[in-house]
Amino acid sequence: MNNRIQELLYRNLQEVFGEGDAERRRAAIKELYTEDCVLYSPAGMVVGHDALDKFAGDLRATHPHFAYTPHGKAQALHNAGRLSWGSGPRDEAPDYTGVDVIIVRDGRIEALYVFLDSVPS
After folding, report:
1. Which of 5, 51, 80, 120 is deepest in the core (most CB within 10 A)?
2. Burial group, residue 44, by CB count within 10 angstroms (0-12, 13-18, 19+)
3. CB 85 within 8 A of CB 10
């Protein structure tokens, strides 16, 4: 289970929030998240695949040239995991950083908590 949790964290960062192609992002959400998933972020809470897809797509549209880069190794504990990351122009210092915490059910993300260390500009 630990390997799956780490995989979910890395793939979520790249294939959901780092993905600019709507079809690929939607396919990743379907594969990585439970139907009743919940995302908690400073902007609010969203529930389900459609709401998550809209949130990730809208966020991506605000800075399409940014890349999400893991900072350190993903950690897993029982049915949860966390990953620190940065986001900014490719090959530059991140404009903002954060930590994703996930709760996993049946091998998929049931809940994602996004903690921002700094607010995007």
Report:
1. 5
2. exposed
3. no
Pairwise CA distance, residues 52 & 74, whole Å: 22
CA separation, residue 11 to residues 7, 27, 31, 119 (Å): 6, 12, 10, 23
Contacting residues for 82 by C-beta, under 8 A, at least 6 apart = 9, 74, 75, 99, 100, 101, 102
Give the pair of three-digit tokens for residue 25.
Answer: 């992002």
Q: What's the alpha-carbon Rg for the chain, to the nearest Å?
A: 13
The residue written with tokens 């999400």 in the block is 68
Extract the tokens encoding 108: 């998929």
2-116: CATH topology is Nuclear Transport Factor 2; Chain: A, (3.10.450)
Alpha helices in the chain (DSSP H): 2-11, 22-32, 49-62
What pTM was estimated for this model as a whole? 0.94
